[in-house]
């Protein structure tokens, strides 16, 4: 009898959390109802369109539709690795993405640390406002500004060059200068907004750590190196992993609005190649295959980076 009683008590103990969870859901039913509408929209606009990925495996004909179009035995994926234009776009995408990770990714971190060292609050607010502004402007607007600044005839950069006796340079039509212009303008657009999350992380650091460091004779630079940087490192690692997941996203909007046929050799990336193949040449099935390949590589990168970093440290996305 005692054994049966113990089993019954354990059964009650196991089932009680489920009951309490259900009761909590009933108490918060209005919140779940509010969550239902965004979930439905997410399903309709983000998951249902995945049905169209099927055309990557078919010889798509708009007249026949997706299901009635014949299967192509992975012909589009076989074509990827024999297509010179795709291989060039893949190489350019990797090169530009790696350069952006190496140069543009650390820029908001450095900028946030420098902002944290500013003691004049008025100057700090003005600096932050100016640095945030480009993020909220589209590349359509910013590219027009960049084209004017680097224009061989009207641009201020070439005005300075000619003032010192040099010859005007068409930066946006030069295979040598186009990528540096991409990196510079990308940093200019995102450095302020990207620093926000690091500033929020820095603001959560315990002030007692800085006070203890001051008592030990540490200056501002040493406090920055030994307290600020280690404290924001978990956030840096998480954002770095997410950035690796988008390694094949080299900046479609930016490049589409700035590049031209003269720099296709160094500036044509997977996204612009998909754009031309799908919307200009009407190769919808092949463009879908290219996009699917890109997304699969992105998933592999983000899973691999997270696994490696989790082995080396306790930080990661999950």
From TrEMBL:
Listed InterPro entries: MetI-like, MetI-like_sf, UgpAE/MalFG_permease
Q: What's the protein's topology in the membrane?
A: Multi-pass membrane protein
Pfam short name (any one): BPD_transp_1
Q: Which PROSITE patterns match?
A: ABC_TM1
One cellular component GO annotation, for this chain's record? plasma membrane
Question: Where does this chain mainly localize?
Answer: membrane
Query: What keywords tag this UniProt record?
Result: Cell membrane, Membrane, Transmembrane, Transmembrane helix, Transport
Tell me one GO biological process term. Answer: transmembrane transport
Protein's UniProt keywords contain Calcium: no
Protein name from the UniProt record:
Sugar ABC transporter permease
Tell me where it resides.
Cell membrane
Task: Quote the PANTHER family the UniProt record gives.
Answer: BLL4140 PROTEIN (PTHR43227)
Record field: transmembrane:
30-57, 94-115, 136-161, 191-210, 231-252, 286-309
Q: Does the keyword Cell membrane apply?
A: yes
Q: Where is each ABC transmembrane type-1 domain found? A: 90-305
Q: What is the lineage of its organism?
A: Bacteria, Bacillati, Bacillota, Bacilli, Bacillales
Record family assignment: Belongs to the binding-protein-dependent transport system permease family.
